[in-house]
Structures are given as structure tokens and as C-alpha cells.
Amino acid sequence: MKRVGALKKRFGQHFLRDPGVAARIADACALVDGDRTVEIGPGAGALTCHLLTRFPHLDLVEIDRDLIAGLQDRFQADPVTVHEADALRLPFCRALPGRLRVVGNLPYNISSPLIFHLLAQDCVAGMVFLLQKEVVDRLASPPGSGDYGRLSVMVQARCEVTALFTVPAQAFQPPPAVESRLVALRPVAPRVPLAVQPTFSTLVAEAFSHRRKMLRHSLRGHFGPQDWERLGLDATRRPETLTVDEFAALARYAHGQVESSP
């Protein structure tokens, strides 16, 4: 394993070192679909060796050049292909054709943008990620919860979220300052039409930027009293009480109003 002193802070590296946890993560990958398994950020390969016992071939996406040679050497006799790439910029469907099962112990600083990048790729059939526990809590949170917010709505509009087991800091080298948690994400048919998605994103962002305010105040630039009446929604509600489907209804209405305006 790469020595701790050589870890690169810009990559947010915390390598998984507990083989029991790695085995449980590999087992959990059966919860999501995919014909081709892709591991993002394999590091020194602690999870990779367990994935190899469960899947016929692995594609590894690693950005750190210092780790790639070690991965190629360690797995040279195995059905593994190592790709030197930044996962945030990789066009997955073009680079890795097929229905993808994407797995990884993700650096905390890229987890949210990477999930949205992958949700935009039609070839991704399922994801299993080890993330900061509070991020998973937000992803899986239901309406009315203190953790429910913009991230919850935007991800739940695109996929089914299942929070799995918690992983202590001691399972990593070096140990992070927080606990981690495994999450399974299964993309579903979008609950918001493609043409309406920009409006949906804008409304959700504006609503939660003022989460203590009533909807009639936080979204007053989009809806007036008559609009709330037509929608059948109580404008005195706060954004954390709205379901994903209610936000979708707001977006469809607002998009329709713009399209019908002269």
C-alpha cells in the first residue's frame, strides 16, 4: 500500500484497509444492475481484489499516476483494465460501452458532482459508493427530515436511494475525521421531463437557499397567489416538507407558464 506520507491531499485520499469492510462492499454490489463493473479511485486495490472474486472483468478509473503503475503490476495476471482518467470528466458511455455498474470509495470532495455526472450518463445502470455518512444521510432523507434538502430532491428525482452500513474511520488509512456509509443508487425513469429539468433545478435551489422561509416568499419570483391556488399547494409550507413529486409539479407548472407567455 502506498505510504501515508505520500498521499495527495488534492485527491482527498483515504485508502480502505479493512478487508472485512471491502468484502461487504463487494457483496453489496449485487444490489445494483450492470453488465460491466467499473471501480472509481481504486487506490492500492484493497476493494479491487474482492470485486475480482465476484465479477468477470473490472475497469479501474484512477487519476493518480503514482498509483497506476502499482495497480497494473498487482493485477497484471487478472482480467483488469486500468484507465488513467479524471472520473469527473470521463465520458463513461463512450469510453466504456455497455451497462455500467459503478463502484468506489469516493473522495469526499468529489462525491456530489460525480454522482450528478454519472446520473447524466444513460449507460450507468447502478452505483454503490462509500461516502461521508452525512452525505448519505442527506441523499436518503425523506421529506420533513432535517437532512432533507436540495441534494435529496435532485438525486431522488433520478434514482432509488438505499443507505446501507456505516464504516468507522479506523477502516481507512489515514483515518478521516468522520464516519463513512455505503449507499446504493439505482437510476429510474426521470420523474421530471428533460425539457423541464432546468426549471426543476432552479426552483429546488431557490427554495432550499431560503429553507426557513415559506414557499410564497422563497419562490415569489415564480408564483403568485393565483398560481398556488391552481396548483393546490399551501404557499405557507416550507421547502423541506415538499415531496419530489410536488417539486416536479411546481416545475412543470412554471415551465408551462413560461412556454405559454407571449
Structural class: alpha/beta
**Low-pLDDT sequence parts:** 1-11
CATH domain class name of the largest domain: Alpha Beta
β-strand percent reads 15-25%
Order of helices and strands: EHEHEHEHEHEHHEEEHHHH
Distance between the first and last residues' Cα: 64 Å
Task: Please tally the β strands and state the result.
Answer: 9
Radius of gyration: 21 Å
Shape category: elongated
Fold-level CATH name of the largest domain: Rossmann fold
Give me the number of helical elements: 11
The domain count comes to 2
User: Would you tell me the overall average pLDDT?
Assistant: 92
Annotated CATH homologous superfamily of the largest domain: Vaccinia Virus protein VP39
The largest sheet, given as strand count, sense and whether it forms a barrel, is:
7 strands, mixed
User: What is the CATH architecture descriptor of the largest domain?
Assistant: 3-Layer(aba) Sandwich
Layout of secondary structure:
Layout: E1 15-16, H1 19-28, E2 36-40, H2 48-51, E3 58-62, H3 65-74, E4 80-84, H4 92-95, E5 100-105, H5 111-119, E6 124-132, H6 133-140, H7 150-156, E7 159-167, E8 172-173, E9 180-187, H8 197-209, H9 215-218, H10 225-231, H11 244-260
Parallel strand pairs: 2-3, 2-5, 3-4, 5-6
Antiparallel strand pairs: 1-8, 6-9, 7-9
Helix pairs in contact: 8-11
